[in-house]
Design brief:
There is one protein chain. With about 180 residues, the protein is an alpha+beta fold. It has a domain of about 120 residues. Strands 1, 2, 5, 8 and 9 form a five-stranded mixed β-sheet that branches. Strands 3-4 form a two-stranded antiparallel ribbon. Strands 6-7 form a two-stranded antiparallel ribbon. Strand 3 and strand 4 form a beta hairpin. Helix 2 packs antiparallel against helix 3. It is globular.
Amino acid sequence: MRSGNLAVVVPVDQTKDADSLKTHVWGVVTDLLTKYLGKYYGSFFPVQKAWDSEIKNAYGVVLGIEDPLNFLNLLAGAQQKQQNAMAFHMGFLFKEIEKADTGEHVIPIFINSENEQVLFHLAWKLLAEGGIVLPDYGIYYTQQKKAFISDAEEQHIISHVADYAICIVRLVELEANHA
């Protein structure tokens, strides 16, 4: 059974104590992931180590205000995982797309809808843009309600780590007979 880590970035209120914030973040993550449990993955649980970084609490939460370096290391690891997943899914699609040379600036493309692999990779991207949480996204941003954000939004998080927490969970895929 395959599984993978997902980083969930959650905005936090710095006026609360660290333990309350971690509990709050775990609640947000649990609410988010429970919606898709049994549909896109079979189970999830917090982890204490991801992308060569330690997480020293039972909820798998790192507060940016409490440990900014660890927060940024986990964020970078999750972003790299997301880039790898994007390269895999989009790379497959781009190999399969047929382009029509019209001489225009807009080039129509044709996707073979009979190829199940093509449809799978296309669905992955569409679900990501629609805010659905899938196991191999690497990262999900609760404030934006999606897996992919703009460079400006990413820079804001990096520049304001104290305003965010990151929770690392392991998502376990559905067993074959339940998929």
